[in-house]
Protein backbone atom coordinates (compact mmCIF):
# COMPACT_ATOMS: atom_id res chain seq x y z
CA UNK A 1 0.00 0.00 0.00
CA UNK A 2 2.85 2.40 0.84
CA UNK A 3 6.31 2.81 -0.67
CA UNK A 4 9.07 0.67 0.85
CA UNK A 5 11.54 3.50 0.19
CA UNK A 6 10.40 5.66 3.10
CA UNK A 7 13.06 6.38 5.73
CA UNK A 8 10.51 6.09 8.53
CA UNK A 9 8.34 2.99 8.17
CA UNK A 10 4.60 3.46 8.11
CA UNK A 11 3.04 2.51 11.43
CA UNK A 12 -0.51 3.74 11.97
CA UNK A 13 -3.72 2.47 13.50
CA UNK A 14 -7.27 3.60 14.15
CA UNK A 15 -9.88 1.63 16.06
CA UNK A 16 -13.23 2.29 17.67
CA UNK A 17 -15.46 0.33 19.98
CA UNK A 18 -18.97 -0.99 20.13
CA UNK A 19 -21.07 0.09 23.11
CA UNK A 20 -19.59 -1.30 26.31
CA UNK A 21 -19.66 -0.81 30.06
CA UNK A 22 -16.36 -0.01 31.79
CA UNK A 23 -15.18 -0.48 35.35
CA UNK A 24 -12.36 1.13 37.33
CA UNK A 25 -8.82 0.67 35.93
CA UNK A 26 -10.02 -1.17 32.85
CA UNK A 27 -8.17 -1.07 29.53
CA UNK A 28 -10.54 0.26 26.90
CA UNK A 29 -10.30 -2.23 24.07
CA UNK A 30 -11.25 -0.71 20.75
CA UNK A 31 -12.32 -3.80 18.84
CA UNK A 32 -13.34 -2.40 15.46
CA UNK A 33 -10.11 -1.71 13.57
CA UNK A 34 -10.37 0.59 10.55
CA UNK A 35 -6.59 0.89 9.97
CA UNK A 36 -3.67 -1.18 11.26
CA UNK A 37 -0.72 -0.40 8.99
CA UNK A 38 2.23 -2.35 10.39
CA UNK A 39 -0.02 -4.67 12.43
CA UNK A 40 0.99 -3.22 15.82
CA UNK A 41 -2.50 -2.75 17.31
CA UNK A 42 -4.07 -5.74 19.12
CA UNK A 43 -7.85 -5.33 19.00
CA UNK A 44 -8.48 -8.26 21.35
CA UNK A 45 -6.66 -6.57 24.23
CA UNK A 46 -6.82 -2.91 23.12
CA UNK A 47 -3.03 -2.53 23.19
CA UNK A 48 -0.60 -1.01 20.68
CA UNK A 49 2.94 -2.47 20.78
CA UNK A 50 5.60 -0.24 19.22
CA UNK A 51 7.44 -2.08 16.45
CA UNK A 52 10.18 0.58 16.48
CA UNK A 53 11.66 3.04 18.92
CA UNK A 54 10.65 6.55 18.00
CA UNK A 55 8.38 9.51 18.50
CA UNK A 56 4.69 8.66 18.23
CA UNK A 57 1.41 10.57 18.20
CA UNK A 58 -1.58 9.05 20.02
CA UNK A 59 -5.12 10.34 20.37
CA UNK A 60 -8.30 9.08 21.89
CA UNK A 61 -11.86 10.30 22.03
CA UNK A 62 -14.25 8.80 24.56
CA UNK A 63 -18.01 9.26 24.29
CA UNK A 64 -20.20 8.10 27.15
CA UNK A 65 -23.73 8.53 28.41
CA UNK A 66 -23.47 8.00 32.18
CA UNK A 67 -24.32 11.01 34.35
CA UNK A 68 -21.02 11.08 36.20
CA UNK A 69 -17.36 12.05 35.96
CA UNK A 70 -15.31 9.85 33.65
CA UNK A 71 -11.52 9.93 33.67
CA UNK A 72 -9.07 8.04 31.50
CA UNK A 73 -5.35 7.93 30.80
CA UNK A 74 -3.10 7.26 27.85
CA UNK A 75 -0.52 4.82 29.21
CA UNK A 76 2.93 3.76 27.95
CA UNK A 77 3.53 0.62 29.97
CA UNK A 78 2.66 1.75 33.52
CA UNK A 79 3.48 5.43 32.89
CA UNK A 80 0.74 7.97 32.28
CA UNK A 81 1.55 10.21 29.30
CA UNK A 82 -1.84 11.90 28.94
CA UNK A 83 -5.19 12.07 30.69
CA UNK A 84 -8.56 13.74 30.74
CA UNK A 85 -11.48 14.00 33.14
CA UNK A 86 -14.90 15.03 31.95
CA UNK A 87 -18.20 15.48 33.72
CA UNK A 88 -21.54 14.59 32.20
CA UNK A 89 -24.24 16.21 34.31
CA UNK A 90 -27.29 15.29 32.22
CA UNK A 91 -26.70 11.70 31.08
CA UNK A 92 -26.76 12.55 27.37
CA UNK A 93 -23.85 11.52 25.17
CA UNK A 94 -20.74 13.48 26.11
CA UNK A 95 -17.35 13.26 24.36
CA UNK A 96 -13.84 14.29 25.37
CA UNK A 97 -10.44 13.75 23.83
CA UNK A 98 -6.77 13.52 24.74
CA UNK A 99 -3.76 13.79 22.43
CA UNK A 100 -0.08 13.23 23.09
CA UNK A 101 3.26 13.19 21.30
CA UNK A 102 5.66 10.93 23.18
CA UNK A 103 8.80 8.85 22.85
CA UNK A 104 8.19 5.10 22.88
CA UNK A 105 10.79 2.34 22.85
CA UNK A 106 10.53 -0.73 20.67
CA UNK A 107 8.17 -3.33 22.18
CA UNK A 108 6.68 -0.90 24.71
CA UNK A 109 2.90 -1.08 24.94
CA UNK A 110 0.40 1.80 24.80
CA UNK A 111 -3.24 1.68 25.88
CA UNK A 112 -6.18 3.70 27.20
CA UNK A 113 -7.27 3.01 30.78
CA UNK A 114 -10.22 4.23 32.85
CA UNK A 115 -9.33 5.46 36.32
CA UNK A 116 -12.45 6.98 37.81
CA UNK A 117 -14.68 4.97 40.12
CA UNK A 118 -18.01 3.60 39.00
CA UNK A 119 -19.23 2.04 35.80
CA UNK A 120 -19.55 3.93 32.54
CA UNK A 121 -21.49 3.18 29.41
CA UNK A 122 -19.33 3.94 26.38
CA UNK A 123 -21.07 4.97 23.22
CA UNK A 124 -19.75 3.87 19.84
CA UNK A 125 -20.57 7.20 18.19
CA UNK A 126 -17.02 8.50 18.22
CA UNK A 127 -15.19 6.46 20.88
CA UNK A 128 -11.83 5.76 19.25
CA UNK A 129 -8.07 5.29 19.72
CA UNK A 130 -5.47 6.10 17.09
CA UNK A 131 -1.75 6.53 16.74
CA UNK A 132 1.12 6.72 14.30
CA UNK A 133 4.90 6.83 14.17
CA UNK A 134 6.20 10.33 13.51
CA UNK A 135 9.92 9.55 13.45
CA UNK A 136 11.85 6.34 13.97
CA UNK A 137 14.98 6.58 16.14
CA UNK A 138 18.09 4.41 15.95
CA UNK A 139 18.21 1.25 18.01
CA UNK A 140 16.28 1.30 21.26
CA UNK A 141 17.20 4.93 22.03
CA UNK A 142 14.49 7.52 22.40
Summary keywords:
142 residues; mainly beta; Jelly Rolls; five-stranded antiparallel beta sheet; 12 strands; 0% helix; Collagen/C1q_domain; C1q_dom; secreted; C1q domain-containing protein; Tumour_necrosis_fac-like_dom
The ordered H/E elements are EEEEEEEEEEEE
Structural class designation: mainly beta
Shape: elongated
Q: What CATH architecture do you see?
A: Sandwich
CATH topology: Jelly Rolls
Radius of gyration, whole Å: 15 Å
Q: What's the structural blueprint in terms of helices and strands?
A:
Layout: E1 12-16, E2 20-22, E3 32-37, E4 41-42, E5 47-49, E6 54-64, E7 69-76, E8 79-87, E9 94-104, E10 109-114, E11 120-122, E12 128-136
Antiparallel strand pairs: 1-3, 1-12, 2-11, 4-5, 5-10, 6-9, 6-12, 7-8, 7-10
Subcellular location: Secreted
Domain C1q: 6-140
InterPro entries: C1q_dom (IPR001073), Collagen/C1q_domain (IPR050392), Tumour_necrosis_fac-like_dom (IPR008983)
Describe this structure in words.
It comes from Dreissena polymorpha (Zebra mussel). Residues 6-140 form the C1q domain. It is found in: Secreted. One of its GO terms (cellular component) is collagen trimer. Pfam families: C1q (PF00386). The chain is mainly beta and 142 residues long. The chain has a single domain (12-136), classed as Jelly Rolls. Helix content is 0%, strand content 54%. The strands form 3 sheets. Strands 3-1-12-6-9 form a 5-stranded antiparallel beta sheet, with no helix packed on it. The chain is elongated. It starts with 11 loop residues before the first strand and ends in a 6-residue tail after the last strand. The relative contact order is 0.33.
